[in-house]
Structures are given as C-alpha cells and as structure tokens.
TrEMBL record:
Residues annotated as transmembrane: 32-56, 68-88, 125-147, 186-208
Keywords associated with the record: Cell membrane, Membrane, Olfaction, Receptor, Sensory transduction, Transducer, Transmembrane, Transmembrane helix
Protein name in the entry: Odorant receptor
Membrane topology summary: Multi-pass membrane protein
Record family assignment: Belongs to the insect chemoreceptor superfamily. Heteromeric odorant receptor channel (TC 1.A.69) family.
Source superkingdom: Eukaryota
GO terms, biological process: signal transduction
GO CC annotation, single: plasma membrane
Amino acid sequence: MDSAQYEYLRLNKYLLFTIGIWPYQTTLQRSLVAIVFIPIIVAQVILQGGGMVTAITANDIDSLLEGFAPFMISLMCLAKYINFFYNFKQMKRLLDIMREDWEIYKKLRIEYDLLSEQYAIGKKITISFVAFLFGLITPFAAMPLLLNAADALGLCNISDDRPLAFRVEHFVDVDKYYFPLLVHSYIGTLAYTTIVLAINSIIAVYVLHESGLCEILRFKLENFVESDVMDVKLHANKRDDKWYQNARDCVLLHEHIIEFANILEDANTTSYLLQIGFNMICVSFTQFQAVINVQENAALAFRYISVTISLLCDLLFVSWPGQQLSDSTERIFEFTTNGKWYLSSINCRKLLMMMLSKSITPLKLTAYKFYTLNLESFSAVARTSFSYTMVLCSVQ
C-alpha cells in the first residue's frame, strides 16, 4: 500500500488488526489475535444469555429486562464480526481495488487530489467516531467502577448488590467471582465496541473511495471533449476519435464504480438486516429502561440514555454510507448530460447513452433488499423504536 494512502487508513488498520480481521494480516497474526479475542466475546455473550435464561427460571423480571438490551447489543456486534469473517475475501478484494485505483490516479494530479479529498474525509470521520463512541459508553462502563470506589471509601455499601455491566447473578456466583467477572465485562465491552468502530469505519471508507471515483468520473465527463470547435465529425473512425476514447474511459470507470458497489452490497446486505433488527429492539428496550428508572434510579437511567445514544449513533453510522453512496452515484446522470456530448461523434454518443441507462437509478446499500440504508430510513427506524418504547411503558 502506498505510504500516502496508508496514512489515511492507519487508524482503520489498527482497529481491524486489533480484532483480527485486517485483510493484510498474516495467518499467524490473525490466529494469535483470534485465540485471545474470540473467547472473550463468546464468553460475554454466553454469560449474558445464561443470565437471561436463569432470570426467567427464577422469575426475576427486573434482571431479565435489564440484561436483555446488552445481550441483543452483543448479538448485533457478533453479526457484524461474523459477516466480516464470512465475506473476508470480498472485504479484502475491496481494499485491493482501492490500492489499485490509488496506484492509477496518484500519477494524475487532479484525479489524485479528488480521491485524496475523500480519503481525508474518511480519516476525520473515523477519528470522530472513535472519540464519540468511546465517550458515550464511558457512563455505562464506569458506573460499576465508581460504585466500587465509593464502597472502598466508605461512602456507600454495595455488598448486597455488587454492580456489573450486565446481570448474571442467577447464572454465576457473583460474590465468589465478582472481580474476574467485572474485569471480563470491561474487556468484553471494549472488544464489542472495537468491533463496531472497526467495521463501521472501514465500510464508510469503502463508500468514500467510491465517492472519490464518482468525483473523478465527474471531472472526466466535464472534459472528455477537449475542444469547443463546432465542426464535429459525426462518423469519425473510433481509432482516430480521441473524444470516443475519452468517453470509453468514462464508461469503463462507471462500470468499475458499479462493480465496487455491488461487491460492497453483496458482502453486507444480510448482515445489515440483522443489525437493523437488533438495533431497533435494543433502542426500544434501552429507552424503556431509561424511562422506568428516571425517577427511582437516575444514575442507572443515565447509563441507559448513554447506551441509547450510542445505538442511535451506530444506526446513523450504518445508514450514512448508504446515503453517501446514493448521493454520489445519483449525480452521474447529471454529469453525463452536462458534458459536451453535442460536440462528439455518433459512436461517442452511443457510449454515453449506455452509461445514461445505467445511471438513471442511483446505487444503494440495502438490508437484504427489504430496507434501503439512508437517512430517511434511519429516521423511520428511530421513530418506530420510540413507538415500541411507548408500548412497553403502557404494558409495564
């Protein structure tokens, strides 16, 4: 990978490397990370699931409701992680294409600047998302630690109800294994958060690379006819027609853009369906927990508010790349018609007509074709989850 391109993707590489799915890791490196990482995340989901099942058998509805959202969040994160593993070759292929494109356009000043501009946006978004999400989960993760510190200082007594990030008291002897469980819950929460950050941010970078290609296509379409001379040879020989060769390059680039988007869609469409479903359920329950605890336990309510905001941010960050892809490809039709096609040959116009027919409908990311990822759908899901929360509150 070119050093300039690597600088833009450095943080993405570190995040993916940490969880063992950076496409250019060696098999040994990936195996060593998996030996440590996978048992941590699997153990957490087993503890959460076991805690819920045993809460049902113990008829402890409060523990069940409190543990439901963290369990569903873990399943949502696992859906992201397993999907990346399952479609690893496609994810690597996308990065390979990015490397190949960079090598081509770094030799062309204007095209390189257009592509670099999108990579710079991707870097800023990744840094902002990391800082923002870690900041949001801090209240949820810090509460058990603060209560233990207060207990040690004699400010409160938590011996009867020792706090953890999630409820497992009916599944494991909390008094006996409290500190191992506490440490594991922090490590597990950090691991799942890293999964969300790593995978969401690399998909955003994939889409921004696509946006860069669309900007390059715009520039090429604006300048594929390099003259304003009205004396047009309508039936020029293809080999001698420079404008035809330029238009052909535009058509090939458009096909390349479509291929890249199709790989991205095929690799993630099933995972998106699971993620959206889990996210909607989780947001409904975390909002419900915040509402029912806001008067009796403000600290717990604040924890769930922070988790709700984190989930909505995850949904937004899943939806935004779809919106960006649609916006970038929607304008290709406009770029094509705004060019100097009227100064080109008949053969050249036929090529552009082919491109127009394929650019009428913008490219999009979907959740198994049932749900289109964009900001409008994000708003609809957020409203629906709020409605479910009201239903839960009414039947409490």
